[in-house]
Amino acid sequence: MAMSSIEADRSPPGIPNPVDIHVGSRVRLRRTLLGLSQEKLGEAVGLTFQQIQKYERGANRIGASRLFEFSRILDVPVSFFFDDMAERAKSRDGLDALSLSDQPQASLEPDPLTKRETLELVRAYYRISDPQVRKRLFELTKSLGTSEEPI
Fold first, then answer.
1. Residue 151 and residue 5: Cα distance in Å, rounded?
2. Nearest CA to 29 among 48, 55, 53, 56?
3. Among 9, 50, 76, 85, which is disulfide-ready with 80 (CB 3.0 to 4.6 Å)?
4. 31-85 residue pLDDT tens
5. 139 vs 114: which has the higher pLDDT
6. Cβ atoms 78, 69 nearer than 8 A
7. Residues of 41-59 as b/e, b for ≥16 C-beta within 10 angstroms?
8. pLDDT at 116 over 70
9. Which has the closest alpha carbon to 122: 137, 143, 111, 144?
10. DSSP string, 9-32
11. pTM of the model
């Protein structure tokens, strides 16, 4: 019996789907940028922090209605959770899951915007109340960077 394209796209049991991992990482990114704990986000949507952990790891798929609820609580459009997915979501064999190319695609480095250090830096930056100080810090940081290439 031939496998349907939907069945072929499913991950084997115990292996998260790359799209679920990406969407979960975007939930974690936004939650962290807002300074919310998993517990607080869970309370806002009526879930335990353990369930939020599973969503953020991609272990559990986030349904459409729940994703809409997250978008309202985290104050982002639903599309936010799919930003950069075409470039970053990978299939289990390491190829670009969304590519129509017959050629294998090179693996991308992990997104630096999801690192804890980056999130803490952004949160600290926005806690600076004086806009002039914030601007000077921004300019200083740009001048210290050694790479001309965007991240």
1. 35
2. 56
3. 76
4. 988 889 999 999 999 999 999 999 999 999 999 999 999 999 999 999 999 887 7
5. 139
6. no
7. bbeeeebeeebbebbbebe
8. yes
9. 137
10. HSPPTTS--HHHHHHHHHHHHHHH
11. 0.61
For every residue of 45-79, DSSP letters joined together read HT--HHHHHHHHHTSSPPPHHHHHHHHHHTTS-GG
DSSP assignment letter at 104:
P
Q: Which residue has the tokens 């289990």?
A: 92
Between CA 80 and CA 76 the distance in angstroms is 6
What tokens does 111 get?
């997104």
**Interacting residues of 129 by C-beta distance below 8 A, sequence separation 6+:** none
Longest dimension (CA), the chain: 67
DSSP code, position 80:
G
| Placement of tokens 């990406």 in the chain | 22
